Amino acid sequence: MRLSRAAVLRQAKAAALDGVRRLNCWGSHLTDISICRDLPNIEVITFSVNGISDLEPLTQCRNLSELYLRKNNITSLNELFHLKGLPRLRVLWLAENPCCGQDPHRYRMTVLRNLPGLQRLDNQAVTEEELSQALVDGVEITAPPARRNVENGWAECTESSAAGSTTEPGSELLGSSLEETNKIQEELDMKPVPRDKYSSFSPRETDCNRKKRNNVLNAILLLMKELDAEGLEIIQQTVVRRLQALQKKELQEE
């Protein structure tokens, strides 16, 4: 799916592309982010849980400081070549992409060797010792990856898997584990969910219902970040009333 101009302006609540400072398109099934070439003033981008494979459009985002790309379809670390010219990039979340490979040390060292200005990588602070070690253990990337028709391959894979599946669209991407939920919370600058609270749901709950509940929860968490104080107070009051109603129902059933 291509990220359109209209979608960017709507999500960022901006009148023009050069006025967009933050963009959150988490879990939007994106494969084409060409529109990023027209976002010169963007500072924070959240593209986690999509199907993005090509980072070349980000080369024009010279003011970018935070980039979240967890769980995409980035197959080669050579894509980092497109980020090397971004002088203000300080935070990168690239974990859970095919390019991370089976050697986490080599992966981290290679990223830091090519992006030594990072302060956080995959939600872990970067140390001076790591930056020094990266010069030894990391691989220098001197050219972008060879162009290939990865986007069509992703689309074909998605369509073929969807054709043989009866699960709700996007449910596999969203996931339902405590770890996944807290990664989402972290990206939204929210507190992690305690294990006792997460596991308090009924064990009789079906996988289908659990996935549906988590899809709704993830959508609510994303929307909450867009609310002001007044909107959050309304949400809080609604939640309190809903909890009271559920508690009353449980007491009646007992």
Automatic annotation (TrEMBL):
Biological process according to GO: cytoskeleton organization
| Keyword Protease in record | no
The keyword Repeat appears for this protein: yes
InterPro entries tied to this protein: Leu-rich_rpt, Leu-rich_rpt_4, LRR_dom_sf
Swiss-Prot/TrEMBL keywords: Leucine-rich repeat, Repeat
Quote the cellular component terms of the Gene Ontology held in the record.
Answer: ciliary basal body; photoreceptor cell cilium
Q: Which Pfam families match?
A: LRR_4 (PF12799)
Q: Which domain of life is it from?
A: Eukaryota
**What does this gene product do?**
Plays a role in cilia formation and/or maintenance. Plays a role in the regulation of cell morphology and cytoskeletal organization. Involved in DNA damage repair.
Subunit structure, briefly? Found in a complex with CFAP410, NEK1 and SPATA7. Interacts with NEK1.
Q: What is this protein called?
A: Cilia- and flagella-associated protein 410
